Every structure is written in C-alpha cells, then in structure tokens.
C-alpha cells in the first residue's frame, strides 16, 4: 500500500511539472514576433483546411473494352457529384484519357458527358469537378489514339483500363 501511495504521489508531481512547462511554453509563444504568430496561424489554418474532407472508394462493377480503348465503373447506384469534389482515377495502359460522367438517361455508345481530357501521371488522373452533376450511373475513361473518331489523344496512346475510383469531398 505504501508503494502505491508513493507511486501516485510521484505521478502527481510529474503531472504538475508538465502543466507548469506547458504553461510557460504557451507564454513564450505569445511573446514571439508578429511574423511568428502569423506563420503559426497560417499553419493552423492550412492544417484545418487539409483535414476537412472525406475520402470514399466508389463501389460498382468495373468493365473494359480494349477494342474501343475504354474502361468504366458502373456505379452500384446513381450518384450526385458536387462542385469542388475531386475524383482520383487509377488507370493503367493509356497515357492520355477522356473522362466521362454518364447520366442515367444517356447511352454509353454516345460521346456525351465528357468532362475533360487528362494526362495519366504515375497511374493516376485527378479530376476536379467544376460543376454539379446529378444522376451519374457510370464513370468511364477513354484512351486509344482517337476515341469516337473525334478526340485526338496521340499516336501510340494505348487503351485505358480503369482500376479504382476514389471520391474526395470537401
């Protein structure tokens, strides 16, 4: 019993010492120059901004048609994408791709819903959504040299194979 009381007393003293050190460090930081305070505030703001998002692996069935240079993710259920969302597409094969968000009322055979041409970097394409899209049933990538005969992606560009899609929502 004496050993337990002795241990508790020591722990109490250590805790008090930590509080004193913490308070003295806080007072020192308050007396720093205005530039230091500004940098700290900017650092705190950046940390806060960077941590306020969700990261979701999108679920569905992945398919591909190498003869057409395309690959897709048929979403498990239609989704809405909001302005400032980002999609991280993991792609192999192609060095350039068209990215498409296909609405539930549109056919995959037509070149509709294309939101941009992107270069694949380290197996990824990051797409920033610039406007809202509702009722999206499929996300697709289109590689090859000239998808639909209307989009020159370059001689030697290979078919695209989609491996995974991650949604980043701020």
Written account of the structure:
The chain has two domains: 2-50; 54-169, Jelly Rolls, CATH 2.60.120.260. 27% of the residues lie in helices and 39% in strands. It contains two helices and nine strands; from the N terminus they run ααβββββββββ. The protein has a five-stranded antiparallel β-sheet, with no helix packed on it. A four-stranded antiparallel β-sheet has the order 1-9-4-7, with no helix packed on it. The longest helix is centred in the first third of the chain and has 29 residues, at 2-30. The radius of gyration is 26 Å and the shape is globular. The N and C termini lie far apart (55 Å). Residues 3-43 have low confidence and may be disordered.
CATH architecture of the largest domain: Sandwich
Head-to-tail CA distance between termini: 55 Å
Strand content: 35-45%
Number of strands: 9
Name the CATH homologous superfamily of the largest domain.
Answer: Galactose-binding domain-like
CATH names the topology of the largest domain as Jelly Rolls
Multimer state: single chain
Q: What value does the Rg take, in angstroms?
A: 26 Å
Helix content: 25-40%
* Global geometry: globular
The main sheet comes to: 5 strands, antiparallel
Alpha plus pi helix count: 2
Unreliable stretches, pLDDT < 50, 5 or more residues? 3-43
């Amino acid at each position: 019993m004496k050993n337990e009381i002795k241990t508790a007393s020591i722990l109490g003293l250590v805790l008090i010492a930590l509080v004193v050190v913490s308070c003295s460090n806080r007072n020192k930081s308050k007396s720093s120059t205005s530039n230091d305070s500004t940098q700290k505030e900017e650092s705190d703001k950046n940390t806060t901004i960077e941590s306020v998002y969700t990261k979701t692996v999108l679920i569905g069935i992945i398919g591909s048609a190498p003869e057409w240079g395309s690959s897709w993710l048929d979403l498990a259920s239609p989704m809405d994408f909001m302005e400032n969302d980002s999609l991280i597409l993991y792609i192999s094969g192609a060095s350039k791709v068209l990215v498409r968000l296909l609405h539930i009322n549109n056919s995959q055979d037509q070149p509709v819903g294309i939101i941009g041409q992107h270069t694949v970097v380290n197996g990824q394409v990051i797409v920033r959504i610039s406007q809202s899209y509702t009722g999206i049933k499929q996300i697709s990538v289109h590689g090859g040299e000239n998808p639909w005969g209307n989009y020159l992606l370059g001689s030697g560009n290979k078919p695209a194979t989609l491996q995974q899609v991650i949604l980043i929502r701020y």
